[in-house]
Amino acid sequence: MTREKGTQKARRTGRMKTPETVFLGQLANQQSSKYRLAQGFGVLFAVSLVLQAWAFANVFSGMALHQSFSLSLFVIGLFALLIRALANFGRERICTSASRDIRYGLRSKLVSHLTNLGPARLRIEEDAALSTRVYEQVDALDDFFSRYKPQVFMVTLIPCVILLSVVSISWIAFFVFMMTAPLVIIFMIFVGHKAAQANRRQFNVLAMLSNQFMDLSQGLSELKRLNRTDEARERLSDSATSYQKTTMGVLVLAFLSTATLELFASLSIAMIALYLGLGLLEILPWQVGSSPVTLTQAMFLLLLAPEFYLPLRQLGNDYHAKQKAEAAATDLLEILDAPLHNAASQQSEPSCTTQAKNSAIADQLTSIQFENLSWCEEGRYRLAPITGTIRQGERVWLSGESGVGKSSLLHLLLGFEDSYEGTFLINNLPFSELDLASWRAKLAWLPQTPEWVNGSIRRNLLLGIQTPSEDEINAALRESQCDDFIQALPAGLETTLTELGAGLSGGQMQRLSIARALLSKADMWLLDEPCSGLDNDTAQAVLNTVKTASKGKTLLIVSHDTHPILWADKHWTLTKGGLHEQSRKENRQAIA
Amino acid sequence: MSSHVKKTAKLSLKRLLLANPWGFVIPLLTGIAATLAGVGLLGLSGWFISAAGLATAMGVGIFFNYLTPGAIVRGLAILRTAGRYGEQVTAHNHLLGLLRILRLWVWDQRVAKDASNLHQQSRGDLLQRLVSDLDQIIRWPLVVFLPWVYALLAYVAVSIFAYFISPVLLWPLSIAALLHVLVVPYVCGRFASHEVHVGQILGVHRRSRFISLFSALITLTIRGHWEDYAQRLCELDERQRRMEIRIQQAVSLGRLLSYIVTILLLVSCIYLVSSFNVETGKWTLITTVQGTWIVGFVLSILAINELVLPLVQSFVAQGQSQVGLRRLNQLHHQPEAIVEKPIPQIEQLLFKQWRGYHAPSGLGSPATDIKVNHGEFVWIRGTSGSGKSTLLASIAGDCLSSGDAFINNEKHQIYCNPSYQAKLSYLPQAPYVFQQSIAANLLLGKTNASDDELWAVLDAVALGDWARSLPNGLETLLSAQGRNLSGGQRKRLALARLLLRKSPVLLLDEPFDGLDKATIETICHSLQNDYKPDILILVSHVGSRLGDNARVIEL
């Protein structure tokens, strides 16, 4: 019967095996040895369950009939109860440990995957939301792996053991169990299936609700200025209320599956109790005058009856654990399924050819060449085919409308995207064969929004570089025109930067990242609109600093026409049609 | 319901319990009914069967009234099912209601904060509070309170039964009840509370480190030092894991202890009601006690055992709820009542010795005198870091300031003054775009604007063609924080929203950032014609027609 249930289930999931169930199954298989051990404890639990029922049944019948009982049987019963407790204890410890291993392993895998995605991670979600997935969503798998997964085995095991021990005692009780168990399962599937769909929808709505709250909360200062906070509150309240209403509609149905289980379990217990009672009174309609069971046997059956349905009921209660895990798995899979085509995978298999190329890139950077280089995604050009060359020491100004692929080109150069088409050569070597780490070590990155970690300004300046001398730091600060405002800060270089900045303006932050680039002594600077937050005078002054500091370095600077890079050796204009190059002279004329 | 009370009150578990008393009483009652029915079902069937067996053995089986107990057994079975179902449905309804109340409470606390403190909590921290703390707290009545009440009542019911069997049984029963319901869960809760607390703090710490590291991902990666930093993230995770192990140990051990208490309870009860008979070598029940009753009694104790097992976990959950509450209460903010004078039609703005600054660093703009008359356009210029933006924010009443502000020669308090802010529109450097449709974002400026008005204002900021090119037009959903918009589009959309308000004073901080000349021209044209404000104060490092015709203030 329970087998039948197992196959039924397999068929059902086989028919609609979602990526989520496959994913969760794979994760569980990682810990299969622990789960096997837990199953061993489960067997011990089931056996002691029967032993306990047998011992207590004897004690009870003795008590009822003779007002006396055998001490040894009573002790055996209690001992079996203790074994049950210990088996449960062991099982719980093992299952939670398996769940922990799965979750913490998965989490580090997620973090490293996100790392390898680089800037592309932001296309899934922003960092804060990603952190929710990496932490909360992974923890949402806990109940599934620590409770639901092992419980599935218990659901098969315990009824089997009980049926085996009952069959020799009473055929009627055996049949009652046999008849009701499949009914329970059928109802569970029937109702549970509908509930599962509804449940999933409900999770989505809950996520939407959280999202709405975060969104309104982050834009709160905007709402306050617009004097729309009350409307927003009303919106929150309305959506929460309507969520409550729709969810309750769903839950009324979802709990029906649990209630069906309860009803069958309760009625079966009552039926067995009644049957046994009437049997003992020898007034069963078909058996008047004789009793089908002795009192001991009756007691034994009665004690086992609730245990027969208990695992099933528990599984019904834990059903939402599965829903929760599947909803979380959807989010996690979105991260893990994000295509990874950067060199992280390539690094893991160091071939002879790569080794040979390493030395090539360890030398001075001599040239960067693009030939019909393009980057297509979902049938849309993120970067139209471009052709061009940057030689060592050349400083290139790249301009163009927003959305034309300027940033994408920089991401390609940073080595975070490998799915480009066309030729992309560094020092006449294909980019894909470069040793990424030594290539990246040559780069300095100055994005639109400066990159900062929580910590002092000093720590941020020295992020990931050899600690330079104090003089070098001061020189870099001077060159980047940071010295004035850092002196004005009460804590100077030790001022802490947080996610919210430290009261420094966007321009000041940007200048700090220029100081950082100066300190890193990189060969090639990639600047992504570094001046978009600065006013003309400062921008010009900073660009002059960049000009003097980057002498002999190779530079690719993305900047709008509003901040012309007059001293650039080349001016590239990127359009949907490709790259147009103007020489320095034309460049100056165009500006003039 | 009591939204006004909620606005000012701190949260507590008690308040949470009483937030919606009727919503709570129904699941409580149905749950109690289900629990008692469950315990009764097992106890009564035990008694019924043993009594039936006894009756037959004594030869009085025919006269045994089996109908009543049989009916009661069936009745209890149905009652238990219905009760469980009712409890689950109503309890979840109550829980969702709590979620709503809590969310609104958090919202009210956020609204009550003044502008410069609004972003005091870092975003990661806020997220943590909202996502996990609320979940922890709403679970409290369901996971902690209800099971506790059920266990207690089951004990009371069995005690009454025990009293009729033999009053002496009350002793072990009450001791076991004390251990089961209070001592064991409390000890486990205490044992785990430190870990729960540390775990929660680690959780916040870990998340903020995650966000901080990932926001510098590229720099760290190209410097080749990402591994070191990622390692430190892993260490935090490892510590969190150790906390989790200890909490789990406390819970598992607590369950084991509960089992042992049950076993000891059974031993002592049986010992109290029986005596050793040397002749038969068996233990015999004392004469005043009916064996059939003892059977029922023992079975109901086994049923109670199942009820008390979840309690251990519940006290750990209680710790989690309390930590969550404490952290939510940090959001609590007592709004100060500001006496506001009504702001008249603004004819003239005058700021004397005016200086805007940020609270933590004290950095800000130099003290200046600014006077702007009706119909005047002012362009504030200055080098980067001279405090233009801070000055503008303080004029908008969004940022701390010193000095005096006069409106039509009358002194007013403008910081966080809603009636002053109702008269002006302020475009900050990084305006927020909501994760709603384009239309919904715009309608925040004017709730009853027609589609024509929306298109007109989009054209005014040169976004009309872009919006028309979208397949869903005005109904296009914008992604979180307008990430599918460029910086310039985001800013223009926010500007369009402000223009819809047609407020007399317009304060713009770098509206032309990252825009091409034609777009700047379009916006200038709109601001000088259809959407012309009475007073315009502009901070920009980009020259424009608007700036050319304005009075320049150099900072």
From TrEMBL, chain A:
It comes from the Bacteria. This is ATP-binding cassette subfamily C protein CydD. GO terms for molecular function: ABC-type transporter activity; ATP binding; ATP hydrolysis activity; ATPase-coupled lipid transmembrane transporter activity. PANTHER family: ATP-BINDING CASSETTE SUB-FAMILY B, GLUTATHIONE_L-CYSTEINE TRANSPORT SYSTEM ATP-BINDING_PERMEASE PROTEIN CYDD. It is found in: Cell membrane. Residues 41-324 form the ABC transmembrane type-1 domain. InterPro entries: AAA+_ATPase, ABC1_TM_dom, ABC1_TM_sf, ABC_transporter-like_ATP-bd, ABC_transporter-like_CS, ABC_transptr_CydD, P-loop_NTPase, Type_1_exporter. Keywords: ATP-binding, Membrane, Nucleotide-binding, Transmembrane, Transmembrane helix. The chain crosses the membrane at residues 37-57, 69-87, 152-169, 175-192, 250-278. One of its GO terms (biological process) is cysteine transport. The lineage of its organism: Bacteria, Pseudomonadati, Pseudomonadota, Gammaproteobacteria, Oceanospirillales.
TrEMBL record, chain B:
Keywords: ATP-binding, Membrane, Nucleotide-binding, Transmembrane, Transmembrane helix. It is found in: Cell membrane. The keyword Cell division does not apply. This is ATP-binding cassette subfamily C protein CydC. InterPro entries: AAA+_ATPase, ABC1_TM_dom, ABC1_TM_sf, ABC_transporter-like_ATP-bd, ABC_transporter-like_CS, P-loop_NTPase, Type_1_exporter. One of its GO terms (cellular component) is plasma membrane. It comes from the Bacteria. It is a multi-pass membrane protein. The lineage of its organism: Bacteria, Pseudomonadati, Pseudomonadota, Gammaproteobacteria, Oceanospirillales. GO terms for molecular function: ABC-type transporter activity; ATP binding; ATP hydrolysis activity; ATPase-coupled lipid transmembrane transporter activity. PANTHER family: ATP-BINDING CASSETTE SUB-FAMILY B, GLUTATHIONE_L-CYSTEINE TRANSPORT SYSTEM ATP-BINDING_PERMEASE PROTEIN CYDC. Residues 344-555 form the ABC transporter domain. The chain crosses the membrane at residues 21-41, 47-67, 142-164, 170-188, 250-273, 293-317. Residues 28-272 form the ABC transmembrane type-1 domain.
